[in-house]
Specification:
eight-stranded antiparallel sheet; 5 helices; Glucose Permease (Domain IIA); alpha+beta; rod-shaped
Length: 261
């Protein structure tokens, strides 16, 4: 023990101190090298960041939901506004006077005609035929068809429906057939006085009331506008001025004569 104490008080102490200094120096050198290597790596990453990004960031995988048709669609789009304008300029322009330029109608197998009121060419031959119906007299309408609405009767002094149209005219004037058809009845009615009834091609019955001196008889065929007789009187409407009362029935139902053509 005494020898160890003597050694430490002598050369031993110097040797231990030298060993500690060497160990500290070695540790310092190792630490400096480590820091230098890290700084060098950091400088390399800063000067060339793409290399690190390629190593750390994975490549994006293709989206399976995007089909080939969508990719081709984007590839076919024009790159510039000039190319788009050129593609529009390549569309053929309508020829002046053609159907698409004049009428604006869509293309198709059907034909387009101007309204009859605007056409200047001659009408078909069928249009020159007699109209399906006409007024029995060219005078003004005295009383219109009322339908379900009640109107006041000057003669009877009550409110009732008016099932026909009254045409004002002078007594003794000629009465024309309102339609083409067959005469089914000529006679006297207690309320409507002298009546001439016609049946047209559609089976409708036209009752012309107030016709005196009939010029036709049952079974005759007449055309629209043909004379049926002259204007007389109507018993149930005698308080009105002279007129002709026209009724139209189909399957027992009254129709508005003014709306039949």
């Amino acid at each position: 023990m005494e020898q160890i104490k003597k050694f430490l008080h002598g050369k031993g102490f110097a040797l231990v101190l030298a060993a500690c200094l060497l160990a500290a120096a070695a540790a310092g050198v190792w630490a400096v090298r480590t820091v230098r290597d890290e700084l060098r790596q950091n400088l390399t990453d800063l000067t060339n960041p793409s290399s690190t990004a390629r190593q750390t960031i994975p490549e994006p995988e293709p989206d399976p939901d995007v089909g080939l048709e969508e990719e081709e669609l984007w590839l076919d789009l024009p790159d510039t506004a000039e190319q788009a304008a050129n593609s529009v300029a390549g569309v053929p322009q309508p020829v002046p006077g053609s159907l698409s330029a004049s009428s604006g109608a869509a293309s198709g197998s059907g034909s387009v005609h101007e309204p009859s009121a605007l056409r200047t060419d001659s009408a078909p031959a069928a249009s020159s035929a007699a109209p399906a119906s006409t007024q029995p007299f060219s005078g003004r309408v005295l009383n219109a068809y009322s339908g379900d609405e009640l109107v006041y009767s000057k003669t009877l002094g009550d409110w009732r429906t008016h099932n026909g149209v009254d045409y004002a005219c002078a007594e003794g004037s000629a009465v024309s057939a309102p339609c083409s058809g067959k005469v089914t009845e000529t006679g006297t009615d207690g309320r409507w006085s002298s009546v001439v009834t016609l049946e047209d091609a559609s089976g409708r019955l036209w009752r012309v009331c107030g016709v005196s001196s009939p010029a036709v008889k049952p079974g005759d065929t007449v055309t629209a506008g043909q004379k049926l007789g002259t204007v007389g009187t109507i018993s149930c409407e005698c308080a009105e001025e002279a007129h002709i009362h026209l009724e139209v029935l189909q399957n027992g139902q009254y129709l508005d004569p003014a709306k039949i053509s």
